[in-house]
Amino acid sequence: MLLLRIAILLGIVTAPSLGSAQDVLATHSSRPQSYLLRGTVKDGGTGRAVVGAQIWPDKKGWGAISDSGGRFELHWPIRSVWTFSVSACGRKALARFQVDFFHDSIIERRISVPRASRRQCQSGDRPPWTVDARDTTLFRGRYTYSWEGGGWLTSCSGQTHWPDWDSALEPLLREHKQREGQRTFVQMRGRVAPSWAGDVFPGPIFLVRTVDEVREPQPDDCP
User: Other CB atoms closer than 10 Å to residue 158's CB: what's the count?
Assistant: First the structure.
């Protein structure tokens, strides 16, 4: 009501539009503060639950795994429209779906995957978002800040990646971003996310295992 009164005093809202203004304010204030995505993954041929299916949001360093009943739950923090991949054993996308996190705080999805895709996972398989001791790929390059989307990474060899905002890199980059186009030198180790996750601008996410250095760039950073 305080915002509404201010709008009336400034002449932004007139008496005839009072009802519609109240509706707008009520709609905005009624949006959920967070969301829960839950559902099931089933075999499209048999209708049976798929155990261990991996539900992975694009450009994120985390995901959810279905249980013995094919059920999964995933908490989402903000209003957005997002695309998810469903995989098994960390290999290729069996299905992709989009969710509009808006009015409903709890969103249900029933996902069907091809029958021929089911196979026994091997000991070396892992969710596509995880990093561990095997991941030693070196990234050396620069982060470019942008107010739209948060910016991107460019390696010294010219490859572009989406930053892993769910890793130790996030607070270090946040300290440096100040103006549009500002660059920061970054050296870290990890791995590039699987390419089957879909087209992600400006490139696949670089999943971070360790961060070696984040600082102001120097002319000889990329010889």
Answer: 8
Report CA-CA distances (Å) from 172 to 40, 133, 140. 37, 22, 15
Amino acid in the structure at residue 78: I
At 40 the three-state DSSP class reads: strand
Question: Over the Cα atoms of the chain, what is R_g?
Answer: 22
pLDDT band, very low/low/confident/very high, at 175 (cuts 50, 70, 90): confident
The full DSSP string for 70-129 is: SEEEEEE-SSEEEEEEEEETTEEEEEEEEEEESS-SEEEEEEEE-GGG--PPPTT---TT
Dihedral, 193, 199, 202, 204 alpha carbons, nearest 10: 0
The answer to whether 79 touches 73, Cβ cutoff 8 Å, is: no
Tokens of 147: 């107010």
Residue 196 predicted with pLDDT over 90: no
| Residue 145 burial (CB count, 10 A) | 18
Q: Is the Cα torsion angle 57, 207, 209, 87 positive or negative in sign? A: positive
Q: How many CB atoms lie within 10 A of CB 184?
A: 20
Question: 210 pLDDT band (50/70/90 cuts)?
Answer: very high
Q: Which two tokens stand for residue 77?
A: 């923090």
pTM for the whole structure: 0.80
Confidence bin at 5 (pLDDT 50/70/90) = very low
